[in-house]
Write a structure and sequence with these properties.
The structure holds two protein chains of two kinds. Chain A starts with 13 loop residues before the first helix and ends in a 15-residue tail after the last helix. By secondary structure, chain A is α+β, with helices and mostly antiparallel strands. Chain A is built from 16 helices and 24 strands. Chain B is α+β, with helices and mostly antiparallel strands. Chain B has two domains: 124 residues, Ubiquitin-like (UB roll); 68 residues, DNA polymerase, domain 1 (Orthogonal Bundle), CATH 1.10.150. Chain B is built from seven helices and five strands. A five-stranded mixed β-sheet of chain B has the order 2-1-5-3-4. In chain B, helix 4 runs antiparallel to helix 7 and helix 5 crosses helix 7. The radius of gyration of chain B is 19 Å and the shape is elongated. Classes of the chains: A alpha+beta, B alpha+beta.
Chain lengths: 717, 213
């Protein structure tokens, strides 16, 4: 594990980004490109009865219109993994489902062509919100240990409440873009994706192509936050490229993305929690219901995974249910399951601390644990209490007046100080990496991974530049390219902890290989010069790494483009990241507008490899948490299905003026067991708990407990 | 020009827009050639920026983009953003919403910041357009670009060209006089990654170096 802290280096791709030179998928301008536009279904459930395309074909510039007839039947069921997304079908499963693809010489012609297509439908009754008649309720697996009902019946104090978190859409600023090129019987797909290998498999499966002839090049990503895994549009664009023999580009309009991409499911959490007379939590009952598509797999039981490891809770009963609706699949969105779960759980903790007249920081400090409460295994590292103490110190928590409504500003604003904690599992994936250094000054490192802006490329560069005497200006880090290295999906805060150990091992092996080559000779200069001196054009090493408890099988799954995550409840220990957030709200006396002038957020993510990008990631996590608390909610139209606020004017996310001062701290203590680098995940844990801290601060300011997000002016009137 | 794309001879020959410079030269050549429509089709010269399909309502505009004069025939429906990106290969300005809601497409027209997605390309006839590609002086970054690097005022980088163009204008307008004012006048540019803290710090820093604010 890394025993010394890493220096603060600039983001390696910042120069290209500030010059406008970073190439995102839609920035690819190829000769003879055709432009595509999808035609979305205008019913929520039913089937196509006619799809007249003649009007579109009469639009000057329209080359072709793809309809369901242009696609092969779906592949047969396979136990190897989920089926690829459907292509174009006559059965309509959700409003906004693509029913046709117009291909034209220009974007303007494609848009006009798509607009003149007027399909007709046979509509069926549908259910699109949890309250809809016809919504199917399906109980989920229990997660239980100890005897929570018994423990709670003997508790000195209990609280029981229900908390609601809304449907949300990721809305990365980059639109979902695909450019497909069919050349010499091979398909090359340029797409913004955090799962290039899964895209490859899905397109090959949907179009019945030999996977060996499908290559996916994940471009620079304009944010993703869980959205850009496998898209329905990819196979459509690929098919268009095959049928026309020309490159085809589709940049999906944002309003359509709301209907086709995944989203964060709305959830309702019922929590009953109790403490004994000493302020120790004795048990928790937690029931979760979430909205879910007819065949969706986003697991309810995972809402419990992180909650049960937050504190030393010995008795837990977790239950849940899916509410099956006629909508597209929900999915992973930054903070994933813990995000809504911790709005609920950390609000409930605050309620319990208040009921037992305990300071919320002291209450949490007293409920620490050294072991995984579910299985008794050690936690490989846990610096939650350090986060709490450091955050409280920086924020000035000791100056807080505990009585709700007791702090006001000079302008009459109500002031509330709230805090909450976060936790997120630190999972790991296997990696296969190649490091090549040549005598002409170039270094290339190729590995599984996708750069979404989180700074993975900078973290890898930090390691290689620190460990190897190479020219940093000519260091190329190939990510997200199925031709460069076997690719695994990058998500779930497993990125840095999966690639950095491989980079370290590659550097170590490279140094050993150079030493072998030199065989005791003293040759001056950096590694490139050394290779040149001994007339070696290049030197290449390959390394493989796996997560704790994984073996060769995981590497084989990676080679096949599959899903090979070692979840953080490892065979002999459990590894989680932690955060503690402190923030101030001010509520204007007349308008009841809520502002957040300052936040202090401290995280334990193990060893920090790239301090600058890590800090930026936490800034982003804090802002995402504030957004979850005060801004974001997707409005679903119960009359027609689909989404009403399908653009960035109506789907409100924070702008610059919404954000005040944010102070970040990282504990930077290496984890001794999880991996040789001592790294743990950071992207999700930085936002988990923020929304509860806001609600807790609003309670402190007003005495009103808001259990429904986003918290709006009308909640406080 | 013929309205039937199947017989419009320009279609098969639109080539890769290799660079901004080539596109400029090419498009000027196209306009020049259009005076001799019949012979233009027979030419083997560059036709990169030719309108790839004939339309009823085409326009010829003359504009300056990043200091280079350009005369080009456009589809009247084309937005400035799509003209820059799809025909001139100036892909720095980004499409984040196409509705003027996010600011990722921000460019300057005659020194003022505008949402290029809401600006019809025809509107820049006779005007000067500055995009992120024209901001630096060769290899020397504009102080705002350097400040964005120094303060890590970005993550994914997708909003960054728009943020920087807006920030340069914010300083020039005299709206970078305090952190509060910067926040207010930069609120037309969404950063979904949440780099606002760095963006404000970068603008404060660059404003001092630009001698304004």
């Amino acid at each position: 594990m890394s025993t010394t802290a890493f220096p603060n280096r600039a983001r390696v791709d910042a120069l290209a980004k500030v010059r406008g030179e970073a190439k995102f998928a839609a920035d690819l301008v190829l000769p003879r490109t055709l432009y595509a536009m999808t035609v979305p279904a205008t019913i929520a459930k039913g089937s196509l009865s006619s799809l007249p395309v003649e009007a579109a074909l009469r639009v000057p510039g329209v080359v072709r219109v793809l309809t369901p007839e242009d696609f092969p039947a779906p592949p047969p069921y396979s136990e190897d993994g989920p089926p690829p997304p459907p292509t174009l079908e006559t059965i309509i499963a959700y409003r906004g489902q693509p029913v046709a693809l117009v291909i034209a010489e220009t974007l303007e012609a494609a848009i006009e062509g798509a607009e003149v297509i007027r399909p007709t439908y046979v509509a069926e009754a549908f259910a699109c919100v949890m309250e809809s008649a016809g919504a199917q309720r399906q109980p989920a697996d229990e997660v239980a240990f100890g005897d929570a009902p018994a423990a709670l019946s003997g508790a000195a104090a209990t609280v029981e409440s229900t908390y609601d978190s809304p449907t949300q859409h990721h809305n990365p600023l980059e639109l979902i873009a695909t450019v497909a090129v069919w050349e010499d019987g091979a398909l090359l797909i340029h797409e913004s994706t955090q799962a290039s290998s899964l895209v490859k498999g899905a397109v090959a499966g949907a179009l019945r192509l030999d996977p060996a002839r499908v290559h996916v090049r994940g471009a620079t990503m304009g944010g993703s936050f869980g959205q850009k895994a496998v898209q329905r549009q990819t196979a459509l664009v690929a098919r268009a490229a095959i049928l026309t023999g020309r490159p085809v580009k589709l940049v999906q309009p944002r309003a359509q993305i709301f209907h086709t991409a995944t989203y964060r499911a709305r959830t309702r959490h019922q929590i009953r929690i109790g403490a004994d007379a000493d302020g120790k939590i004795v048990g928790v009952q937690h029931h979760v219901e979430q909205e879910q598509s007819p065949n969706g797999y986003f697991a309810v039981s995972e809402y419990h995974r992180d909650v049960i490891r937050m504190y030393g809770i010995r008795n837990y009963l977790g239950t849940g249910a899916d509410i099956r609706l006629d909508r597209q699949d929900s999915g992973y969105m930054r903070g994933t399951h813990p995000q809504p779960a911790f709005f609920a759980f950390e609000s409930a903790i605050d309620e319990l601390a208040h009921k037992t007249n305990r300071d919320p920081v002291e209450f949490r400090l007293a409920n620490d644990t050294r072991v995984d409460p579910q299985n008794g295994h050690p936690l490989s590292s846990r610096f939650l209490n350090e986060c709490l103490r450091e955050g409280a110190r920086r924020f000035g928590w000791s100056r807080r007046s505990p009585v709700p409504g007791s702090m006001t500003a000079s302008d009459g604003s109500l002031v509330g100080w709230g805090m909450a904690c976060g936790i997120y599992q630190s999972a790991t994936t296997p990696a296969i990496a190649t490091l090549r250094i040549d005598a002409r000054g170039h270094t290339r490192f190729a590995i599984s991974g996708h750069e979404m802006g989180q700074g993975m490329r900078t973290a890898i560069a930090s390691v290689l530049i620190q460990d190897l005497d190479i020219d940093p200006e000519r260091l190329e880090i190939a990510l997200g390219d199925t031709r460069a290295a076997p690719q695994h999906m990058t998500a779930g805060s497993w990125g840095t902890n999966s690639v950095v150990p491989a980079a370290m091992q590659a550097a170590q092996r490279m140094r050993a290989a150079v030493a072998d080559l030199l065989d005791g000779r003293q040759v001056s200069g950096n590694l490139h010069r050394k290779l040149a001196s001994i007339r070696r054009p290049f030197l290449q090493v390959e390394v493989t790494t796996v997560g704790p408890g994984q073996d060769q099988a995981a590497l084989e799954t990676l080679r096949q483009g599959g899903f090979a995550v070692a979840e953080a409840v490892y065979p002999e220990f459990s590894t989680f990241s932690y955060s503690a957030h402190f923030l101030e709200v001010r509520i204007e006396p007349r308008t009841r507008r809520i502002r957040v002038p300052r936040v202090v957020s401290i995280a334990d993510c193990g060893r920090v490899i790239s301090p600058r990008t890590a800090h930026s990631q936490v800034y982003g996590g804090v802002i995402w948490g504030l957004s979850h608390a005060l801004r974001e909610a997707t409005e679903i139209d119960p009359r027609y299905g689909g989404y009403l606020n399908e653009d960035l004017a109506d789907y409100v996310v924070p702008v610059n003026a919404d954000i005040g001062e944010i102070e970040i701290g990282l504990i930077d203590q290496p984890d001794p067991l999880a991996n040789p680098a001592g790294v743990k995940g950071l992207g999700q844990v930085s936002m988990v708990g923020i929304s509860a801290a806001v609600a807790n601060a609003v309670f402190h300011a007003t005495g009103r407990r808001i259990r429904e997000l986003p918290i709006r002016i009308e909640h406080l009137l | 020009m013929c309205n039937d794309p199947d017989v419009a001879p320009e279609i098969p020959d639109n080539q890769l827009l290799v660079s901004r410079r080539d596109a400029m030269i090419a498009s000027v050549a196209v306009v020049a050639a259009s005076h001799f429509a019949a012979s233009a089709r027979a030419q083997t010269g560059p036709r990169q920026a030719a309108l790839p399909v004939s339309v009823d309502q085409a326009l010829i505009i003359r504009t300056s983009i990043n200091g280079q004069t350009l005369e080009i025939r456009i589809d009247a429906r084309t937005s400035l953003l799509d003209l820059l990106r799809e025909r001139l290969a100036l892909t720095g300005a980004k499409k984040g919403c196409d509705h003027g809601q996010c600011g990722a497409c921000t460019v300057h027209i005659d020194g003022r910041r505008v949402a290029s997605c809401l600006t019809l390309a025809g509107k820049v006839d006779g005007r000067e357009v500055l995009t992120i590609e024209g901001l630096a002086g060769g290899d020397t970054l504009h102080p705002m670009q350097q400040a964005f690097i120094d303060h890590d005022a970005l993550q994914c980088g997708y909003c960054t060209p728009g943020q920087i163009m807006a920030a340069v204008a914010c300083v020039a307008e005299g709206n970078a006089t305090s952190r509060e004012r910067i926040r207010e006048y930069m609120s037309g540019n969404i950063c979904r990654c949440g780099a606002y803290v760095g963006i404000v710090a970068a603008i404060e820093d660059a404003a001092a170096k630009m001698g304004r604010g």
